[in-house]
Design a protein that fits this description.
- There is one protein chain.
- The protein contains one helix and 22 strands.
- It is globular.
- With 246 residues, it is mainly beta.
- The protein has a single domain, classed as Jelly Rolls, CATH 2.60.120.10.
- The chain has a seven-stranded mixed beta sheet with strand order 1-20-17-22-15-13-14, with no helix packed on it. The chain has a seven-stranded antiparallel beta sheet with strand order 2-3-4-11-6-9-12, with no helix packed on it.
- The mean pLDDT is 92.
């Protein structure tokens, strides 16, 4: 296992990319980057926090050999793809798209051009275990589980999460967890060779680090088990990874 490191990246220090209708804060540089694996941490190669204006979004475009998890914080995403899947993704709905041999899809803010709110969404990419999979799609409403004030395994390909995960990843070395916490509530970060912790909303105290605000990130290498305590109503997104790009 690599030397233990805990690296804090403040929201202001993340990669920022803006245009007329999109404001993107990126844990790894993804806009215009054609070597996503070269900048990955563990297995996570894209972790974008996007703010999309009403009536706007990403027109039809293609992906291949990628597991894509979309997590909405505010507003809604209208999803359509070339495999015939469509849906409206809202807070509390877990969604995974497997690009596999190739899929075309579009993602739009579900609000009309003159409506509110702007869409606040996090999109995350990691590789599948094998290339050439049949394109696929899965979604599940887990709002009830998220209300339990504890760590919820949202998506995983790991054997030990088989009976407790909402949606399945085609990567047996990764799991995605979310905790919606009331003030004073605490969860532990899973112990893994690689971890990525993102404060999606609120403010928390990270053991050994101190206060983290909305948009802050912690990259963990060779460590875990630290407690995260909500200082106010908060939501924390955690990736647990037992592998990395070769």
């Amino acid at each position: 296992m690599s030397e233990e490191t805990v690296r804090v990246i403040r929201s202001a220090d993340r990669y920022h990319w803006n245009n007329e209708w999109l404001r993107s804060r990126q844990s790894f540089p993804s806009t215009g980057n054609f070597d996503l694996a070269g900048n990955a941490h563990g297995l996570l190669m894209v972790h974008n926090e996007d703010f999309v204006d009403p009536g706007e979004g990403f027109d039809t475009h293609q992906h291949r050999d990628t597991e894509i998890i979309t997590w909405v914080l505010e507003g809604s995403v209208v999803h359509q793809d070339s495999a015939g899947n469509s849906g409206i993704i809202q807070p509390g709905l877990a969604q995974r798209m497997t690009a596999g041999t190739g899929i075309m899809h579009s993602e739009k803010n579900g609000a009309g051009r003159y409506e509110k709110p702007a869409l606040h969404v996090v999109q995350m990419w990691l590789p599948p275990d094998e290339s050439g999979l049949v394109p696929g799609y899965q979604e599940m409403d887990i709002a009830g589980e998220l209300a339990r004030n504890s760590l919820v395994t949202v998506a995983s390909g790991m054997r030990r999460h088989r009976d407790e995960t909402a949606i399945t990843l085609h990567n047996r070395y990764a799991a995605f967890h979310v905790a919606r916490l009331e003030p004073g509530s605490t969860v532990a970060i899973p112990d893994a060779p690689f971890g990525h912790v993102f404060v999606a909303r609120g403010q928390v105290d990270f053991e050994g680090v101190g206060g983290l605000d909305q948009g802050d990130v912690v990259r963990l290498t060779g460590t875990g088990g630290q407690s995260v305590t909500a200082l106010e109503s908060s939501e924390v997104l955690i990736w647990e990874m037992h592998g990395q790009f070769a």
